[in-house]
Design a protein that fits this description.
Number of helices: 18
Order of helices and strands: HHHHHHHHHHHHHHHHHH
Largest sheet: none
Shape: globular
Helix content: over 70%
Distance between the termini: 16 Å
């Protein structure tokens, strides 16, 4: 009940913003730590495997792309669970909230087993579809097959993390993610070099770590469910409810992935300089997105809780304050991204043409960062409200709006500085503006504010 008591401090006229700020930060800061810890898995794998040779490192790049795509498409397991659990908790039904979390974990486990088996069987075809041949393809298949058994753990981490976020706990996932990154590093070294398993050892190490993380996080949710007297066996209606809530978010995620892939495709067509510089800009943009996504996670949990408590004024107050945080954080990140770009791009490349193209594109991206903060937070607010159906349709509309602009850049923009600047004006400007307009229009109304459990 502590969160309910703290949320009651918020008045309908927007006063006591310091209380709201404390709640936002108490959720967003640990969430940011957990988000940053996860990429360390790929970083450690790359560092360890890189010493095995070029073919091994190239194979890892391909295999990890497949894994990241599979797991990324299943992120709805976290988002849908966060919203549903927070809503039940806000309605005072802690047992029901934990039941949603348990059902979400069963769904994740079933999907993980199915996707793990499918990934193992289809590994040669998946790697071949990416154009790999020879030793690189062999190394990629070995890594993909050795890490595929970890997919149930990876998806269980998503669902259990979503449940804990809905319960207003972002600290436990941070601790587990940090410990997991350390364990993964140790296992990689031991299995790759100590046991002489090569790239397979790296895949096994990652799989074992993810399974352990899923077990630990799942165990935390299970202990809470037992204490609340919640059933632990799978419930057909609950599984179906989780799947139904997640389906629109899957569509939303697919549209985002399609836009990112389209951007890479255009960059590739514009030439080697544009593609290389785009990789730099995309990496920096992705890092900045972690901070904004942490605010979105806080918005999910807090808005879901407020709507579950049927407190519309509090929901409006949270909407206003989280948007202020999002735009403000975006402005600060934009100043750093654009203002210091000419310094840090040198860490990525020594090619002066690539450096110039990346700096100009980063300035373009930096100008749009406040809008990106608005978009990320509104995404979190609407996900927390369970408004997945609208987000799915909005995702399709924004993708449709972006496609002709991206194609125009591909057809007319030159390679180098101008080409990349136009491409990021299209992605960070047009695509993100379309998302800002659609979600902003939705948030102005009341249709998304469905109250109760």
């Amino acid at each position: 009940m502590w969160m309910r008591e703290r949320l009651d401090e918020i008045s309908s006229d927007g006063h006591h913003t310091s209380a709201v700020d404390r709640q936002i930060l108490s959720l967003a800061v640990p969430a940011l730590g957990a988000l940053v810890a996860e990429p360390l898995f790929v970083l450690v794998d790359s560092a360890v495997v890189g010493h095995l040779g070029t073919a091994s490192l190239a194979g890892l790049a391909l295999a990890s792309t497949v894994l990241v795509t599979v797991v990324g498409l299943c992120v709805f397991l976290a988002y849908a669970t966060t919203a549903a659990v927070a809503r039940r908790l806000g309605a005072g039904d802690r047992g029901g909230a934990l039941q949603v979390g348990v059902d979400g974990m069963w769904l994740a486990l079933g999907l993980g087993i199915a996707l793990g088996a499918l990934t193992w069987l289809a590994a040669p075809w998946l790697i071949g579809a990416l154009g790999a041949t020879g030793e690189t393809a062999h190394q990629a298949v070995v890594y993909l097959r050795s890490s595929a058994p970890g997919l149930p753990g990876m998806l269980l981490v998503l669902a259990s993390t979503g449940a804990l976020r809905g319960l207003q706990d972002t600290r436990t996932p941070l601790v587990v993610a940090t410990a997991g990154a350390v364990v993964n590093a140790v296992l990689n070294v031991v299995l790759v070099y100590g046991a002489h398993l090569g790239i397979a050892g790296s895949g096994f190490g990652t799989a074992l770590t993810q399974l352990a993380m899923g077990a630990v996080l799942g165990g935390v949710v299970v202990r809470g469910a037992r204490a609340a007297g919640t059933r632990l066996t799978p419930h057909a209606a609950g599984l179906w409810a989780n799947a139904r809530a997640g389906a629109p978010l899957l569509v939303r995620t697919l549209t985002l992935r399609a836009a990112i892939l389209l951007t890479v495709w255009v960059a590739t067509a514009l030439g080697a300089t544009t593609l290389a510089a785009h990789q730099v800009v995309n990496a920096v943009w992705g890092l900045a997105a972690f901070a904004l996504d942490a605010l979105a996670i806080a918005a999910q949990a807090l808005v879901g809780h407020a709507l579950g408590a049927a407190d519309v004024p509090r929901t409006r107050a949270l909407l206003r304050r989280t948007l202020q945080w999002g735009v403000g954080a975006g402005a600060v990140l934009g100043l750093v991204l654009g203002g210091a770009s000419w310094l840090y791009v040198r860490a990525f490349t020594t090619d002066p043409d690539v450096q110039r193209a990346a700096v100009v594109a980063l300035v373009v991206a930096a100008v749009t960062m406040p809008m990106a903060g608005w978009v990320f937070v509104l995404d979190g607010v609407l996900i927390g409200a369970g408004d997945g159906r609208f987000l799915a349709w909005a995702g399709v509309l924004t993708l449709v709006a972006y496609v002709p602009v991206a194609l125009a850049v591909r057809g007319w923009a030159p390679d180098g500085v101008a080409g990349l600047a136009w491409l990021w004006a299209a992605f960070a400007g047009v695509f993100m503006l379309a998302r800002a307009l659609t979600t902003g229009w939705r948030a102005r109304g009341t249709a998304w504010m469905v109250t109760g459990a």
